[in-house]
DNA sequence: GCGGCAGCCACAATCGATTGCGGTCGAGCA
DNA sequence: TGCTCGACCGCAATCGATTGTGGCTGCCGC
């Protein structure tokens, strides 16, 4: 406020004049003087000083494993838009899939007085998140969640998505459907695979050795999974991959051993990353409203921060949609 | 330091004990007591308070136009890794391609006491950046630069890239090569198009109505450019697009009027976004070391911040590489 | 035995904004 | 005229860390 002392008033008065909710305690004439002085000096309040006094920094942190994975940019964008519209600043941290560096980053963010976290890196057992939940730091999980669901979570209707895939393939006449599952230390891996099991049972299709868990959500892991599938000799005419990258890796691997999609087998992905529609054949996949997820997570966080109390909703699952393209065909 | 007063010493002493460079002024015994007390309490220094006193926040801001454009995530990642290794925090802001919101975001960042900026949204005439340059805020431009080059810039050898494309096409026998240029309010648009002109002249190829400027770097603008090219009746057998998205849009548009690539024409892109190698036909394009660009920009910024003086290098251009794939063929 | 020096630490100011409390002044009323 | 009340504003503490200055203690040398 040193600057606005240019108006010839006490910093306390200037502070009140500039603060809409305390402006009533200052005469309109003084308010005018202060506002004009502030404009003249191009005054920007020092958020650090304010944060120090009020312990509110209007900063929210978004923690993601790898920004170069096309899954995350839409989430980031959705969150950014909501947050900046609410006057919040987004700090992004990319943990590089490394729990240790995640720990460090989150500690650093807290030292910076961040008001809350949106976390997209949750593992199924995640002690770090348990700690955050325990000490009441406003934290919202997005895309993945932890086993204990004591933190609000914004995700997608994974179960629906997988069922749509299985039904679609079954309707096309496929019976030997296998699932390239995601890692079991992620909620998406677990839930999509259990949804696969349920959907297959519903259709009375064979489940024996129909699920292969992949080590990570990457093309390399998808290729490795497909290689294991081939090596096992297990007959299959269709694959439900737990996400798009696994599907891509599997297709590449199978192409290497002469299997063409959709001539020799069908495959579905999950997430509908950008460019999936540009591939040849274009990938049949489940579209997830990623930007909405980010935006909704941000809104949930803002609600929590604003209420000073507990979060409002504990779990929100956004609807998904099956996008049928070229990688699925009748059997 | 209230917390470390648990050690029974004055906060000033604790501060010095915890500060490696001032530790000499405190007896080893006291240092040990303070360090132990800090560990016991799980002390994390309050960066706000520190920043308030020292006017150094160890935060750097990265300003990008649209995180969902695959061009930017690698840059973000490269910068993030360098910054967090140096103990800095990255705050990301997505301006949504809107200069007004960019102004607001940057003002907000400065209020937060950010130590410096990395900016990927530079326009050719950019008053906002002129202001930043004028008042000495550490700022590094990445990918694009402004007309006045008073700010350090980290980019790619665009000239080389375009020349490689033209030479490659000319070597394949193409003579009627046209350029889908980027917007002229970006440095990349201007420089790639002037490089195109130079390369064509070098090869003694016809330049008449060979350059079509696109309104933005998007698929839609690329499609519009291709439509204009068709409508003009200008003969062509090859296109040098100013970036991958323009190439994609053009290919889609031309496919709509029956022209197949590479049967009927060849085309090259620029940047080598992820998934460009997965298309059919896979895009021949210029690979730009995006992550390196981000990392180098971050290092340049850190150098500036650390030196308290002026930036070291004013312009760095990283080498590019032509990746020949399926969209170019002999004529 | 006393002056001086150095090592170690405490005091207090500072960064910029917020906020409870108290003081001043003018108006209204008896 | 004197008292009260309320509007308005200033004082000073506070948030947590940093840092220049000064004071205390103990040891050394003369």
Describe the structure using short key phrases.
homodimer, alpha/beta, 15% strand, 3 domains, 6-stranded parallel β-sheet, DNA-binding, 12 strands, 4-stranded parallel β-sheet, 331 residues, Rossmann fold, 42% helix
Secondary structure elements and their pairing?
Two copies of one chain form a homodimer.
Chain A (H helix, E strand, L loop, with lengths): L10 H8 L9 H14 L5 H8 L4 E6 L7 H14 L3 E6 L4 H13 L4 E4 L7 H8 L4 E4 L10 E4 L1 H14 L5 E5 L5 H16 L8 E3 L5 H14 L5 E4 L2 H13 L9 E3 L16 E3 L2 H18 L7 E4 L2 E3 L8
Helix pairs in contact in A: 4-11, 7-8, 9-10
Chain A binds a DNA duplex (30 and 30 nucleotides) through helix 1 and helix 3.
Descriptive account of the structure:
The structure is a homodimer of 331-residue chains. Chain A is α/β, with parallel strands linked by helices and 331 residues long. Chain A has 3 domains: 3-45, no CATH class; 57-156 and 290-319, Response regulator (Rossmann fold, 3-Layer(aba) Sandwich); 158-288, Rossmann fold, CATH 3.40.50. Chain A is 42% helix and 15% strand. Chain A contains 11 helices and 12 strands. Chain A has helices at 11-18, 28-41, 47-54, 72-85, 99-111, 127-134, 158-171, 187-202, 219-232, 244-256, 290-307, and strands at residues 59-64, 89-94, 116-119, 139-142, 153-156, 177-181, 211-213, 238-241, 266-268, 285-287, 315-318, 321-323. In chain A, the strands form 3 sheets. Chain A has a 6-stranded parallel beta sheet with strand order 2-1-3-4-5-11, sandwiched between helices. A 4-stranded parallel beta sheet of chain A has the order 7-6-8-9, sandwiched between helices. In chain A, helix 8 links the parallel strand 6 and strand 7 (211-213). In chain A, helix 4 (72-85) runs parallel beside helix 11, helix 7 (158-171) packs parallel to helix 8 (187-202) and helix 9 (219-232) crosses helix 10 (244-256). Chain A is elongated and about 85 Å long. The mean pLDDT of chain A is 93. The A-B interface holds A 44-49, 51-52, 57, 59, 66-68, 70, 72-74, 76-77, 80-81, 84, 89-94, 96, 101, 105, 107-113, 248, 274-275, 278-280 and B 44-49, 51-52, 57, 59, 66-68, 70, 72-74, 76-77, 80-81, 84, 89-94, 96, 101, 105, 107-113, 248, 274-275, 278-280. The structure holds a DNA duplex (30 and 30 nucleotides).
